[in-house]
Automatic annotation (TrEMBL):
Pfam families: HTH_animal. Residues 193-250 form the Helix-turn-helix domain. This is Helix-turn-helix domain-containing protein. It comes from Rotaria sordida. PANTHER family: REVERSE TRANSCRIPTASE, REVERSE TRANSCRIPTASE DOMAIN-CONTAINING PROTEIN. InterPro entries: HTH_animal.
Amino acid sequence: MQKLDYYCTQQQFLLKPTTNFATFKIHNLHMNVSHSSLLRALGTFLVSPLVSDRFHKLSSEAIEELMAIVLKNIYFTFNRKLYRFTKGCPFNLPITDLLCNIYLHDWQMSLLREIRLKDSFYGRYHNMGFFTWNASTDYLERLFDERQLTLDSDIKLTTYIDTRVEFLNAIIVNNRGFLETRVYHNQEEQPFLLPYAKNHPRLRHRQWFRYALIRAGQYCSSFEDFEEERRYIEMTFLTNGYSLDFVEYNLRQFYSRFFRSEYQIKD
């Protein structure tokens, strides 16, 4: 968010009143990506001149062959039966997570070249991306259509283009050339829910209280939006049975750590 704010406020004329924001999300990648697509992306990555610090005892071909062996031997059990992944891969293996990120890196390159040519801001988090766009939206939609065709048939790409978008639990708005951001809450989800904590819930929730306030400080471009989000966080804890003393104590801890010179919080 800080980099986006710098792009929009410090770089002159890059955020215009007509600038659109675009988001994309690739669905079911881990479930439906073919092993051949993963290996093809890995091969492209290994011969890229951008790759440094190679492990010189293994050639690119050897690494690809080893990864092919790994992908052919990923098994899981269900109802006392043994199954093998013929496509897709599990979420919880670092090696397959790395392969999917390499696949996404390869997939995004042609889109990224267009974005860089237009001096736009770009960011990606796993299978979701966000960028600014000052050119024709029709042209951008054609680019997205082309990117969809490069994905495996069972993988769906969803996109959104507007002056107001939601991305990573943030609302991002171009208000006539001025950037406005705040925390996004999905109206279809039940409000005032705390994250599930199996062990030491009070400790976990105290950590989450601080995290939620830090996120509010980073996301909210106005003090009024920050105050509204702060009240939402307080109501979340009070609704879930935490005392007002707990809320006020953790709020004082937050202010004393991050805003010591600006705020004097008194009992």
